[in-house]
Automatic annotation (TrEMBL):
Residue ranges constituting the Acyl-CoA dehydrogenase/oxidase N-terminal domain according to the UniProt record: 7-119
Annotated organism of origin: Kitasatospora purpeofusca
PROSITE patterns registered for this protein in UniProt: ACYL_COA_DH_1, ACYL_COA_DH_2
Chain ranges of the Acyl-CoA oxidase/dehydrogenase middle domain: 123-223
High-level lineage: Bacteria, Bacillati, Actinomycetota, Actinomycetes, Kitasatosporales
Superkingdom as given in the UniProt entry: Bacteria
Alphabetized Gene3D superfamilies for the sequence: Acyl-CoA dehydrogenase/oxidase, N-terminal domain, Butyryl-CoA Dehydrogenase, subunit A, domain 2, Butyryl-CoA Dehydrogenase, subunit A, domain 3
Protein's recorded name: Acyl-CoA dehydrogenase family protein
């Protein structure tokens, strides 16, 4: 289906990213997966390529573009090649909106130039061992010092993407006592320098997918965080998190669609080459019908993603819209990728084939950013249910 969501500039950027992936990522990607993340300098390479600065204002070294379309191009092209850019998606897709929206001018001048260059890699720490989708259950605390110059941070976080190599982590914590009558109150965001005494990176978690993206446990033991590192207003983090989850869920929907489209592409290539019983797998009616069904699902995902991208561009993508897009695209993509792997037979279970990576990487799309069950609750609420 012909797309109209991207301009000539987006397509030129796509060609640059596609060539970069083919030359600089695909040949070494297995090494990254074995290590659990790309080399640290790779992020500086992406910075030099301009990937991190697209949405950053020009005065801080960026291009000053708005919307999510350039990031969507990156997501589509990495999926097309069956690779990833490590924790870059968190850096630009999750953390950047918080810095652009809630950082003051001094903070932007301090952090954004390094953000753009890749010298400052970021992560966001929300999830805790006892608090996932229920953000109001966060128990990590930050107490303001008596002289009012810094917070003292204590607690633990888990499932933090980019947590191993991050230089600056946005930590969601309680800056006032827990109130059972208003569980959402008292949460704040502190931007924590990872070289701070008391800040510890715990286990690097071993995942079934996204193995080139480091995910870690973090611990804070009396970490001193200057008051100048408070992001936005104290006590308003829950509102900030809710606002920015729209882009996060859009990003996941885009990633799921891109993975499904890539799976069909890999399956078509494979069945044309693979021969069984004296003919190619593509010649069997079951193969043709299965891939026709998959392509139809991908087209439906594409239509929803493109509409969501356009709405987000003009500020019209609602919380329920984003939830519906994430729900449909992630659930549909899982079925498509599973069918495409099946067409690969035994080779689909072997990690050297990109379809195997797509299969394991895709599974988390229905979990992070809010589970499918949470998305259903949001959509149902929009219906007055």
């Amino acid at each position: 289906m012909r797309r109209t969501v991207f301009t000539e500039d987006h397509e030129a950027f796509r060609e640059t990213i596609r060539d970069f992936i083919a030359n600089e990522v695909v040949p070494v990607y297995e090494d990254w997966e074995a290590a659990g993340h790309p080399p640290r300098d790779f992020y500086r390479t992406l910075g030099a390529l301009g990937v991190y600065g697209i949405e950053v204002p020009e005065e801080y070294g960026g291009a000053g573009e708005s919307g999510f379309k350039y990031q969507a191009v990156v997501a589509e092209e990495t999926a097309r090649a069956g690779v990833g850019f490590g924790s870059s998606g968190v850096h630009t897709g999750l953390v950047l909106p918080y810095l652009l929206e809630y950082a003051n001018e001094e903070q932007k001048a301090r952090w954004l130039p390094g953000f753009v260059s890749g010298d400052i890699m970021t992560a966001i720490a929300m999830t805790e061992p006892g608090a996932g989708s229920d953000l109001a259950g966060i128990s990590t605390t930050a107490r303001l010092s008596e002289d009012g110059t810094h917070y003292v941070l204590n607690g633990a976080k888990t499932f933090i993407t980019g947590g191993v190599l991050a230089d600056l982590v946005l930590v969601v914590c309680r800056t006032s006592p827990y109130d059972p009558d208003n569980r959402r109150a008292g949460l704040s965001i502190l931007c924590v320098d990872t070289t701070s005494p008391g800040y510890t990176v715990g286990r690097k978690l071993q995942k079934i997918g996204l193995r080139s993206s480091d995910t870690a446990e973090l611990a804070f033991a009396d970490v001193k965080v200057p008051v100048e590192n408070l992001l936005g207003d104290e006590g308003r983090a829950f509102t900030y998190l809710t606002h920015n989850l729209v882009q996060e869920r859009l990003a996941i929907a885009v990633g799921a669609y891109a993975a499904a489209a890539a799976a069909v592409r890999f399956a078509v290539q494979y069945v044309k080459d693979r021969k069984v019983f004296g003919k190619t797998v593509a010649e069997f009616q079951n193969t043709k019908f299965t891939l026709a069904d998959c392509e139809s699902q991908v087209m439906a995902q594409q239509s929803m993603v493109d509409r969501a991208l356009e709405l987000y561009q003009i500020g019209g993508l609602t919380v329920s819209d984003a939830a519906a897009a994430k729900l449909f695209c992630t659930e549909s993509a899982s079925g498509v990728i599973d069918k495409c792997l099946q067409l690969h037979g035994g080779y689909g279970y072997i990690l050297e084939y990109p379809i195997a990576r797509l299969y394991t990487d895709n599974r988390v799309f229905r979990i992070y950013g809010g589970t499918s069950e949470v998305m259903r609750s949001i959509v149902a609420k929009s219906l007055g249910l």
